[in-house]
């Protein structure tokens, strides 16, 4: 199977209430599981940014991204930040994990991974999401200075 890893960023069009996030997560869970797509969704509440990692079969990931996610009116400025072919899954067990980042700390909203179900994120996942977020910020800063 041709695996692909796609990371995109976007900005919510309005403040996301927990019901809004629950809706996104519920759809993501069932559809992604059906397509064997794994990943991580981070919502940065202070800036309303989303960042999502999607990994799975190339055709499925691209169809989900271009066919549904990128057209979703709940967010704008949807931009692919990273697209890598042949990558191994970073989150093989995570159907779609979800983090909220605010006040400098990552909190788990809905525990879906095999690692933690309630409370604080495991160090591993928090570290991964944070690295993604930092890489994103560095890229934005780099673009701003070019
Ligand atoms: C930030 C964000 C992330 C999303 N992530 C997923 C996802 O991982 N999987 C998914 O099926 N839908 C996801 N959605 C929802 C899709 O955009 C879409 O509403 C849903 O898949 C239903 O697709 P359809 O309108 O083509 O039927 C996400 C939406 C947003 C705003």
UniProtKB/TrEMBL annotation:
Q: Which InterPro entries match?
A: Acylphosphatase-like_dom_sf, BLUF_domain
Q: Entry's PROSITE patterns?
A: BLUF
The superkingdom listed in its UniProt entry is: Bacteria
Question: What are the BLUF domain coordinates in residue numbering?
Answer: 3-97
Gene3D superfamilies recorded for this chain?
A: 3.30.70.100
One Pfam annotation reads BLUF
**Gene Ontology terms, MF aspect:** blue light photoreceptor activity; FAD binding
Q: What is this protein called?
A: FAD-dependent sensor of blue light
Q: Which organism is it from?
A: Breoghania corrubedonensis
């Amino acid at each position: 199977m041709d695996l692909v890893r796609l990371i995109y960023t976007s900005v919510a069009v309005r403040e996301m209430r927990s019901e809004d996030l629950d809706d996104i997560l519920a759809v993501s869970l069932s559809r992604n599981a059906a397509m064997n797509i794994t990943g991580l969704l981070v919502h940065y509440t202070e800036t309303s940014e989303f960042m999502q990692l999607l990994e799975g079969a190339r055709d499925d990931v691209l169809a989900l991204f271009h066919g549904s996610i990128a057209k979703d009116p709940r967010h704008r400025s949807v931009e692919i930040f990273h697209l890598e072919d042949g990558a191994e899954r970073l989150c093989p067990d995570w159907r779609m994990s979800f983090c909220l980042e605010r006040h400098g700390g990552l909190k788990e909203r809905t525990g879906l991974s095999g690692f933690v179900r309630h409370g604080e994120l495991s160090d591993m996942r928090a570290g991964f999401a944070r690295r993604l977020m930092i890489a994103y910020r560095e890229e934005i800063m780099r673009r701003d200075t070019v």
